[in-house]
Amino acid sequence: MTSEIYQCPGCCYQFNELLGDEYEGYPPGTKFESLPDDYVCPDCAVCNKQDFIPVEGQSVPHS
Amino acid sequence: MKAFTLTESNGNTIEYIDRKRYLWLSSLFYPLMPLTGVCLMAWTGLEVSLLLPLVLTYVGGPLSDWIFGEDKNNPPEAVVPQLDEDNYYRILTYLTVPLHFVALIGAAWWAGTQDLSWWGFIILAVSVGVGSGLGINTGHELGHKKSSLERNLAKIVLAVPAYGHFCIEHNRGHHRDVSTPADPASARMGETIYQFVLREIPGAIKRGWEVERQRLERQGLGVWHWQNAILQSHAIALLIQLSLLFAFGWIMLPFLVIHNVIAWWQLTSVNYIEHYGLLREKKEDGRFERCQPWHSWNSNHIYSNLLLFHLERHSDHHANPTRRYQSLRNFENLPQLPNGYFGMFLLAYIPWLWFKIMDPRLLALPHIQGDMTKINIQPGKQEKLMQRYAGIEQDQASSEEALEAKIQ
What we know:
heterodimer; A: mainly beta; Rubrerythrin, domain 2; two-stranded antiparallel ribbon; 5 strands; B: mainly alpha; globular
């Protein structure tokens, strides 16, 4: 099982499934797919969930 | 002056010198503008001197924009990462934070210790309110950044105007909903600023608290938890305003009320002019199109842009909200305001004059071309405005017909 990293194409914010985003209330291990449908980039709010791009070659093995 | 250079893979060297580099130092003086009146009064003994900051802002501002004109200089995209990394620019934003506190405390001290007439007292409170409104602009620049230092400084500076919900509401609410009818911080065509403020201030408070409540809920925390970023900023505001009350007595109560209201009104003024009438198109799936450059009004006037950290290059800000002020770009053929923000504020305060100047400008935008369905219109005003501007639409239609006939 791997954890993926998804990046905002606008401001390059990265959502790393391994780390989650605790400030935003998404604990480590949160799957990107399980984020709410109305999720917007927490840094720029310009791009939404559908816009995020998986970062290739940076899959992190799950411990 | 420092040159930013970059050698591209094809061997070309790009060199960029930011001619505004040292002009940005002016951002350190403007927060202290409210104290110029106090200094002049201390020197001349004349209470009327307290008017100086308002004259500098509302006469000096539009006049300077008119005299110094526009600045269309842009940094090449390739050197933007270097420009962003240059600490000089961010230190200026950090330094403005304590200056806003100095201005408020200095003006409060003068109001609390001098025997001012009622009008001198009001002028002083209004002047420092205008300056603290500018503090929201400093909070805006800092609050959009990714570092926790800058985000915390934003929370601190927002305590001066007691507007702690701003960053959350602005970054996560306004930027998401901008130029849609649902956004309380986007003005509609036919809406006066006096109608707008009644929608904007309560709407922004409600949306800011809702966004923060949802974040805390995801963390399993209640809305009144100390980790609530709005409460953190308000706690600093409470501390400073109560301290002024203890230090200078009950006279601070009307002083702070006037100060706070005027500071909030500055933000209302900015919000009113930034997206007036502009509307994002609704797509088939019910979502609005992504915010485009033509969904913001811009101004390239150098003087007011220097005082406002390039806020007036607003289209680029909405396209790239985390971009630093020194890197924001001007683009041709965007909705342009005829003067800088300070001149436009005065216009907005006289609704009939605002409508007379801005409505034709709005209708003439290339993506609207007189089509009222592409405008964010005040409900109830549609019919009246359609009748008033029917000529423009017909003119547009007939010129299009003429053009088609010519082509055929």
